[in-house]
Write a structure and sequence with these properties.
Length: about 500
């Protein structure tokens, strides 16, 4: 077996539509920092990230990044590739063309109406309005109406956008299918979507499972147990639902992670469901929505997947490799004042709904980590006081009594909760801040001016964070650029 690393690194990218450009700027700065640190510590072939994970637009960025690395066998130029993608999908809006005039015109009215929008806010607002009518050419189509056939209410018509332009753009910048392996020194791609009928998060994985297959299982773990007092007769059938993709992750899987509810249609993917009557799997079509509904910041999913790979796949009995995380949050965590206009209130509701909840996940994971260590020490204490290995093994191999209530986990006996413990290391969170120009439909604003600003803001905020954590000397040594002012009037 290949050597087990002491530390692995993961990048986690949130969902947030056009705000995904911010992630690219943040990644560019983070890449420069990690490249500098690796060189300083003498690592020459260390991957920048072992795991690349994302939800929604974060899944789009993650897929392009992973594809670039495996296709070019280098991380050099990966940030530039992402920037190239965002320049391609951005569109010069009509307000972009008349930006100077809008700044002047709205600046004039600001003298008389204290609550009037700033010029930059108005540019973003009307840019998103434009795209809502005309579509964004490389992202989504103009809306098409589906008349209400249930209540016959014309006001209840369903307006949806076609996201096939986004899929086409994605396929222009990423090569599919994406299948990677650690043995080939390739990053692991993890993407999150949501099963609409089951209300469960589903993780697509570019690494093969321990059996050599590439698949995603979710729901209850089906276990046949003929002897409830022992694990000897346990037979693991598999998860209730299984999606197989033996060749690797496809663009359909990525788009499933980015299928914004209501705005886009459901993503359809072929799956298999376990039938308890026939005790076999049957093929069926499952429907998926944007992963941001349940896991917009998939820290928990990443940590669980890392543990599964090392514990179940590589049979690591002690703690799995420490996992350091670089996480980019797109939705501001705090604001300086409560909004009192409708658009501002809708905007704040969106930020809270899709904001970072991973700190509670981190607390839970660290608690599991702590209790696992405590159990190990108690086991050692029992050995020191005469308990035999057989007595301990008999206890650890007992089936978990609440197995039928667990979802999405391979654990079937006590041992699975003690060995291969989580090992959470440093988590660096880059947090996009609220600005005075924010609008409620910001995730649909693919205007050129907005995308360029987001790219720069992501870079600047990350450099600021690096400065706070490691000092200005590290910033200079890593070749990072000192903050450029990007402040429209």
């Amino acid at each position: 077996m290949a050597s087990i690393p002491k530390v692995e690194r993961a990048v986690i990218l949130q969902g947030g539509g056009s705000l995904g450009a911010y992630e690219v700027g943040a990644y560019k700065a983070g890449y420069q920092l990690l490249k500098y640190r690796d060189k300083k510590e003498g690592y020459t072939d260390r991957p920048i990230f072992d795991i690349i994970a994302g939800t929604s637009i974060g899944a789009i960025n993650s897929a392009i990044l992973t594809s670039y690395v495996i296709e070019n066998k280098t991380w050099e130029g990966s940030a530039e590739r992402l920037i190239e993608f965002w320049n391609y999908i951005s569109t010069e809006s009509i307000p972009d063309k008349f930006a100077d005039y809008m700044m002047s015109w709205w600046g004039y009215w600001n003298k008389f109406f204290i609550d009037a929008a700033k010029g930059e806010t108005a540019r973003r607002y009307y840019s998103s309005k434009e795209f809502a009518i005309t579509g964004a050419p490389h992202v989504f189509s103009p809306p098409h109406a589906e008349l209400d056939k249930k209540f016959f209410d014309p006001l209840n018509s369903w307006y949806r956008y076609d996201n096939r332009p986004l899929k086409k753009s994605l396929e222009k910048f990423a090569k599919f299918p994406i299948a990677t392996s650690r043995e080939d020194n390739q990053p692991r791609l993890l993407l999150v979507t949501v099963d609409v009928m089951e209300s469960l998060p589903v993780v697509f994985d570019s690494y093969a499972k321990e059996g050599g297959t590439r698949e995603s299982g979710y729901g209850r773990l089906i276990v046949e147990n003929n002897n409830k007092g022992s694990s000897e007769n346990q037979k693991i059938i598999g998860f209730e639902h299984v999606i197989k993709y033996p060749q690797g992750i496809t663009s359909d899987h990525v788009i499933a992670s980015a299928a914004v509810p209501i705005n886009f249609d459901y993503s359809q993917i072929e799956a298999e469901r376990y039938d308890p009557q026939t005790k076999s799997y049957k093929k069926e079509t499952r429907y998926f929505w944007d992963g941001g509904i349940l896991a917009n910041t998939p820290l928990m999913q990443v940590v669980m997947a890392q543990r599964q790979y090392w514990y179940f796949g590589k049979k690591v009995k002690d703690s799995v490799p420490k996992l350091n995380v670089f996480q980019v949050n797109l939705h501001p965590a705090r604001v300086d004042k409560v909004p009192w206009d409708h658009d501002g209130a809708v905007n704040r509701n969106s930020d809270i709904s899709f904001g970072d909840r991973s700190k509670s996940d981190e607390t839970m994971l660290l608690s599991f980590q702590m209790y696992s260590q405590l159990v190990k020490e108690l086991i050692q204490l029992a050995k020191d006081h005469g308990a035999t290995q057989k007595i301990i093994d008999d206890l650890l191999d007992r089936p978990i009594p609440v197995q039928e209530r667990l979802e999405g986990t391979r654990a079937t006996k006590y041992r699975d909760g003690v060995e291969g413990a989580f090992n959470i290391g440093e988590i660096i969170r880059v947090q996009r801040k609220h600005d005075d120009y924010s609008i409620s439909n910001k995730i649909f604003d693919f205007s050129s001016n907005t995308i360029n600003r987001l790219l720069q803001d992501g870079y600047n905020d990350t450099v600021d964070g690096i400065t706070t954590l490691f000092g200005i000397e590290v910033v200079k040594a890593a070749g990072l650029e000192i903050k450029k002012e990007n402040n429209p009037s």
